[in-house]
Amino acid sequence: MKIKNIVSLSLIFFVFGNLSAQNPWPKTTETAKPWTRWWWMGNAVDEKGLDKQLITLNEAGFGGVEIVPIYGAKGFENQYINYLSPEWMKMLQFTTDKAKSLNMGVDMAVGTGWPIGGPQVSEEDVATKMIVQTYTISSGEKFSEKIVLNDGKLKNLKTIKLDIVTAYNEKDEAVVLNDKITNDGSLNWKPDSGKWTIYAVFTGKTLQKVKRAAPGGEGFTLDHFSPVATVNYLKAFDKAFGNSNYGVRSFFNDSYEVYNADWTPDFKNEFKKRRGYDLSPYIKYLINNDENVVTTRVKSDYRQTLSELILHNFADNFTNWAHSKNSKNTNQAHGSPGNLLDLYAAVDIPESETFGSSIFEIPGLRRDTADIQKSDMPDFNMLKFASSAANVTGKKLTSNETFTWLTEHFKTSWSQAKPEVEQVFLSGINHVFYHGTTYTPADVSFPGWLFYASTNFVPENSLWPHLKGLNSYIERTQSVLQSGKSDNELLMYWPIYDQWASPKGKDMAFKVHNVEKWLQPTPFYDDLKKLNKIGYSLDMVSDKMINESKSENQKIQTAKEGSSYQVLIIPELTYLPETTLNDILKLAQNGASIIFQNEPKDIPGNFEVEKRRNQLKSLWNQIPFQNQGENVKIATFGKGKIVLSSDVEKGLEYLKVQREKLTDTGLKFVRRQFDGGKYYYIVNHTSKEINQFVPINYTGKQTTIMNPENGDFGVAEMQNNSVRIQLKSGESLILKNSETVDSSILKWKYVEKTGTPINLDQAWQLSFKEGGPKLPKSRNLKKLEPWTNFYDDPATQSFSGTGVYITDLNVNKRKSDDYLLKFDKLYESAKVIVNGQDAGIVWSIPFEISIGKYLKKGENTIQIEVCNLMANRIRYMDQNKITWRNYHEINFVNIDYKPFDASNWKVQPSGLDGKIQIIPVTYSK
């Protein structure tokens, strides 16, 4: 085409990079790459299809897959394969063999759909609930009723039994009547006086079935509190797998979403063994919601017992079983009625999840409120429960189910995904799983098979050609975040007994989806937010972890491979076990520093209350506090120090624990330590550009800046323990601070000035490369416009795919070191080709890319291949009643879990809009 712009450029081309230097990036493995959850719909898979999709995923930059079978598509029933059948195991073996040849890994769920359960769950092992029936009886009356279960759905089950019968008079005096009930339910007891209420507790069954189950995986949900149920459940896998693990790296269990399961057949005996007293006389307090001392204490003991049962009877058994197969295990502990920290720590790979969309201040980042979940997720501090458990106990990986319902289906761009995954990284997580990818047979037309609750990381996605940009960014970042150990300086105790003391309800599930109820209203949460904001890094710790910790060289460490910490903080609380206080004082005795926000008011639980309360007070009174000024008391305790102050920041200042002042700029960070130095991963989620010297606590002898988006690196400019940082809104970098100097690494190229932008306000050619349902017509443009502006061609309104914009410019001479190609409005990502050379993918904010090294003197051609969202094509299909969703069980729903219909959507702008500029750049010398 004709030249529309002549640009003056210098003759010497600047090549940004450091090709001769030793590469400072850690060696990457398949684990550093993102993995994806891989739904096998109906298990309708075959070797040809598995081979093709694994190759496609590998080429896009995925390091592994996590197989989760779910419900199938209608019309393909003859292709379904039963879960764990010989044919299914054959498909698994083919998958792991193929993945190994591609240097990919394979995980798989121990069940189909969720929560864990299936056909092997017998009536005895079904999730169990307590059923309470009440009766009244007065002195002198004959009790003619039978104490039998009245629930018609359950009363014929063989496993139903009467567990506890207790009568209470009007003075709340209790009489346990377990031995007064005959086999037919008759009561052989009459009160001497007064009116009595009888509480009868039955062991019942929830009858909850597995949600979204695949063929061969249908059945009841498991009783997580029963050791027998867990062992019995895993026998089906022993039978299918034999002595092999079939190449599975890790066996995965999804989040605990078991409803109304608050009992187990042996609960009464387990309670007495663990809590030291019989629950029978207190059953009334367990089921009511009265705000009284006995209720809070009994419920705390009940919830602690549930926590211990799910930890030891499910999580520990699950881990031991996976290890018997020479594999690892992965578990999402959230949602469980237990101490999340201990449950996460009980497995090899703790896994959290994000759900929904976050608010970021990044200019140009689209966040249409009509297309997002209305929830308090994702919550940064909720994510830290999993990473804390990993860091404290020395797990190398913390995984995350990432991008669940990030936006409405078909409307998620990779630029929207970037800050969301960065928030995951900043929480300490270092192994993300996309949610996700669906296996689709080759003969299924667009958009292929899709899962109803995810972001569509599928090859049929029109944005797929540019996914490598996001995946490469994650790979580089995770290669760093999986190196060495976490380097957080603070431990924060989670006062779970304050939660367990609530008089409301029975079991207490700590869910991702209701953090506004159990996490956000607490002083603990306020501390987490404040300390993070002012530049402190912390992990959470449980009573069990404190008990297992040691103090050496003024540092606190729980496990040999775990991180060590400078200070243990006990936030404002009411209840603290005397045993935990004793463990804390032992740490201080051996050199640890402790901060209490307040004096613990009481011990939890209902066993030997006065004795244990006195022990708590006695231990506390051993601390020789002295006033150190307003709101600060201090004590030397053995080799350690104890501070009492409601202001944690004051306590940390007294203990001379430094915060990272870089957060004063609004930057966020996470820090890792490696043998010989420390990494800082730093993100700019503010609305402004950061261009200044930023203080950091550890610099080493050389600080190297590493760009995780393109792999560039160079030695940073330093000044008084501050590093010069240039980050535009939405950008990130990594600092590698080493104790050794590598003189082969050149200086980082800081932008010293930019020249007058050259606007490419000229003619362009627009054509269409791939996509559908039909390619729009090619056209010549007088100026840049989205292709959706051209209403004269109906195909532009329905097209999802790749549009190609091409223009020419003449290079006369050049005076700058480099040139940035900057996009004003990009819908949604672009591959830039200059003179036939691939300059890279523009997929994240700010939408710009360096092209200086590809320009030449004379005529140049710039080609921009733009991919848009799937939304317009789906809109067209729904408007024209083209069937594309036809699944068993749940069919397909929108962001609000209502039937999906895109026919009334607005056309999503697609292509290029606004200005495209070439910006001359001069770098520091």
TrEMBL record:
<dbReference type="GO" id="GO:0005975">
    <property type="term" value="P:carbohydrate metabolic process"/>
</dbReference>
<feature type="signal peptide">
    <location>
        <begin position="1"/>
        <end position="21"/>
    </location>
</feature>
<dbReference type="Pfam" id="PF17132">
    <property type="entry name" value="Glyco_hydro_106"/>
</dbReference>
<dbReference type="GO" id="GO:0004553">
    <property type="term" value="F:hydrolase activity, hydrolyzing O-glycosyl compounds"/>
</dbReference>
<keyword id="KW-0732">Signal</keyword>
<dbReference type="InterPro" id="IPR008979">
    <property type="entry name" value="Galactose-bd-like_sf"/>
</dbReference>
<keyword id="KW-0378">Hydrolase</keyword>
<dbReference type="InterPro" id="IPR053161">
    <property type="entry name" value="Ulvan_degrading_GH"/>
</dbReference>
<protein>
    <submittedName>
        <fullName>Glycosyl hydrolases family 2, sugar binding domain</fullName>
    </submittedName>
</protein>
